[in-house]
Amino acid sequence: MQQSEIREFWSAHPCGDNLFGTPGGDRREDYERFFTRYDMAKYRLESHIPQCLDRLDAHGKRVLEIGLGQGAEAERLIRAGALWTGVDLTETAVRRTGTRLALRGLPHEGLYQGSVLDLPFAQDSFDLVFSHGVLHHVPDILQAQREIHRVLRPGGTLVVMLYARWSLNYLVSIAVLRRAALLAAYPLVRAGLLGGSHPLLDAHAAGARRCGLLRYLRLTEFLHRNTDGPDNPYSRVYDVRQVRRDFPLFEVEHAQKRFMHAPPLPVHGMAGERLLGWHLWVHLTPRG
Questions:
Q1: Strands (E), the chain
Q2: Tens of pLDDT along the chain (288 residues)?
Q3: pTM attached to this predicted model
Q4: What is the rounded CA–CA span in Å between residue 3 and residue 107?
Q5: Beta carbons within 8 Å of 218's beta carbon, 6+ residues apart
Q6: How far apart are CA 16 and CA 34, in angstroms?
Q7: How far apart are CA 136 and CA 37, in angstroms?
Q8: Angle, to 10 degrees, between the axis of helix 3-12 and the axis of helix 91-103?
């Protein structure tokens, strides 16, 4: 898995565009309208994020955010008093986040296009490193955590959101229901009997044709294609034991699951997120 492949995917599919659309033009009004619409939809869907960010106590701290999306969390952290710096692998996320901060007059210390595998910062630069929904897309996670450890000050905090292994979405929706649905529908799609009425199913069937149905249905492969779209090249799921294994330079201080989400199951917003939620929020402190 090459980093360039991951960069190309996220450049073409910025986080949230599949759910909330894209800016309609290049004017200030277009972007202002887009960011407002995006934030309303995002936090209606993931209403736990603002309270999780509030608990970071970012005021007056030098904060590095890794992976920027559309800049929604960046705005909240800056408004909470963070001395914020952001880095993202893609030019698209850097440009849109920069546009957001400029439109809203939000001060920040830096905004960079770069890789978590080679962060463009000096040792011990930050009090807090925050990364929401990004590091589970990094194949070389050991190098990533080494770089984060290098730029994080002793006594600092790393806060990450990772997809949860022990979740309804992974254990039931992805591992069982969606695989069974593709297996049942695949002959019909190949025969053209569904008439192109299911674009997402068609995309999965096309992927299965390219690499072979049985290989595509292997859970490790199928997981990649069922977190952020059928063309997503890489995803992983985590529990606390695997966090400890993949972040050996850090100590796990606190972990909790949030966000009950398991399409096609109609469970969004229902109770049970602490047991089977899809988002694993982990607070870690550097060793040594």
A1: 62-66, 83-88, 110-113, 126-132, 152-163, 250-258, 279-286
A2: 689 999 999 999 988 776 666 776 667 778 898 999 999 999 999 999 999 999 999 999 999 999 999 999 999 999 999 999 999 999 999 999 999 999 999 999 999 999 999 999 999 999 999 999 999 999 999 999 999 999 999 999 999 999 999 999 999 999 999 999 999 999 988 887 776 678 888 999 999 999 999 999 999 999 999 999 999 999 999 999 999 999 999 999 999 999 999 999 999 878 899 999 999 999 999 998
A3: 0.95
A4: 30
A5: none
A6: 12
A7: 27
A8: 50
Residues 82 and 64 in one domain: yes
230 within a domain of the structure (yes/no): no
Clarify whether residues 8 and 90 are in a common domain: yes
CB-CB contact of 142 with 120 (8 Å): no
Q: For residues 159 and 185, state if they share a domain.
A: no
Residue type for position 202: D
Provide the domain limits for residue 212: 168-224
Q: Do 103 and 186 fall within a single domain?
A: no
Distance between CA atoms of residues 153 and 155, nearest Å = 6
Among residues 179, 200, 224, which one ends one of the domains? 224
* Count: domains in the chain: 2
Do 29 and 143 sit in the same domain of this protein? yes
**Same-domain check for residues 202 and 129:** no
Dist. CA 140–CA 258, nearest whole Å:
25
